[in-house]
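---------- Forwarded message ----------

FYI, see the Cysteine-rich receptor-like protein kinase 29 record below. Original note from H. follows.
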Amino acid sequence: MAVVSFGLLSFVLCLFIIITSQASAQRCDNSKGNYTINSTYHNNLNTLLSSFSSHAEINYGFYNLSLGQEEPDKVYAIGLCRGDQNLTECLKCLDDSRVALTKECPNQKEAIDWRAECMLRYSNRSIFGLIETQPMVRIVYLKNVTGSVDEFNDVLESLMRNLSSTAASGDSRRKYARASKPAPSFQTVYAFTQCTPDLSSEVCLKCLEEAIAEIPNCCSGKAGGNVLKPSCRIRFDPYSFDGPLVRIDPDNPTSQGKSNTSRTNGTIIAIVVPVASVVLVLTLFCIYLRVKKPRNFFEFKREDNYEDEITLSESLHFNFDTIRVATNEFTDSNKLGQGGFGAVYRGRLSNGQEIAVKRLSRDSGQGEIEFKNEVLLVAKLQHRNLVRLLGFCLEGRERLLVYEFVPNKSLDCFIFDQTLKAQLDWERRYKIIRGIARGLLYLHEDSRLRIIHRDLKASNILLDQEMNPKIADFGMARLVLVDQTEGNTNRIVGTYGYMAPEYAMHGQFSVKSDVFSFGVLLLEIISGQKNRGILRGENVEDLLSFSWRNWKEGTAINIVDTSLNNNSRNEMMRCIHIGLLCVQENLADRPTMAAIIEMLNTYSLSLPIPAEPAFYTNNRTVSLPDMQSREYNSRETGSSKLILVQESENEASITELHPR
């Protein structure tokens, strides 16, 4: 009986390795449409899937190709091999997937095939650079771990988190990481994580984290498992399953990894001997399982109740020729401006709708990342104070973003122009301030995704026909978890002068770094001066220092733009006070956008005393022992008055803020 049990266990182990190496899981999507045999789409699909081997320049196992002129006959395909597969193994696996999909999905326009060594998917819509987490397949190895499950799970989680960070930091050719780690009871966990390399680092990490979160649902306490998604995958296993990592050599497209022979010898010896000793019992056992319980070792599960958070709708995709015609071949006469990653053009669609097209520079290494980031974020944002994304175009080297056309250009064109600023009286400026605040509050708290803009400035605020503000340019934005309030980055992006000190110096960004930028922008709107400097005789003083000094000396009226009248002086003083609260050096002292909205809307609410702003350059200090908390009451234009409220003994404002 002991011999039989040992033989059965050996068979289970052997069966797991064989199935994992050879079996596949397909998903055929009927909802995306079907094609007929010998149709244009069918011919394009066959040609494209058979062409992978002809791309000799690709030696890193990632193929993202398309074929066809126009939808619905254009085919997009992605082929991705595991990082330890050499070119020969990779192409064989992809070809096996092609054959399997031809058989299992004979006429679906969208399908996917997962294998242990590769993944192949195709569609009649653009699938490049987009995170897609459904459909999902979970493969479970039903052998339980030995020893403490909690300790094993701790080891597994730590390993997976580290691998996810490593994989996400990869380049546009490979986002793959693997490692092993000792586990309790003399076990070893082998694992890998992988994303399609067309994803940005942040989006890749998000996809992998969601995959890791599935482990407790399917594989808790199990010795092995897989979570497969279109954009990423993870795997852990009690046995080594991969070979030498294939070196990417751009000068030698056919470079290969070392032979995988050595990795199989030990496994073959360990498995064949015990299996051979009980071959008859195992054969009968295999027949029994095949007939009675064919899915007892693995569970293939598709999650039907999922919420597709970021997948872009097919209707958002624009044909490049459509945009080219709309912009009159991107003529200079239609050019609205030039940004850090490309130009913006005005265009008109065939139905008469006016659009603004952001065309990323082809030679911009960062442009591709910013393009994907902006598409993924803005497509899900709907707010009156955010510029609306109408669609995008991703064809060849062309990356275009199509926005609603906002006729009055950007805020900086008005407030920093000595002639045009006269069009912005205080009522309009106050309307713009509140609109920007509402847009930021939506990004930080009310949208389905928590977003930190990171590049809020006057040139990124567009004005519509009624001079309503619309926050634009999300190329620098960062997506964070809904319950996450801050993050870190090694890549500082944005505009100096608007950057919070903790972000500019240490790469720490948060909703409070956006609040800092809002405070700078608020002071610019009030003063009509750029933050980089205000001329004082022969000296130049930055806007924050100028505002702080005048506020402390009781001459805050000097901050106000001279083109404004004093009818709403009380409201102007209150906004200066709010601006100084926003630019305090300690981020914990800065209000949230919810609190700022309350300050702007509730005029009876007293405001805390601001601390010295960050980057304050004036060494002269003003002693104000009797400094009092200021409350700016009412919006009356004639008899508005400044009410002084006695400060409490602990230097805090008597009226506390209660953000909604």
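H. also flagged this: Residues 314-404 form a domain with the Phosphorylase Kinase; domain 1 fold (CATH 3.30.200.20).
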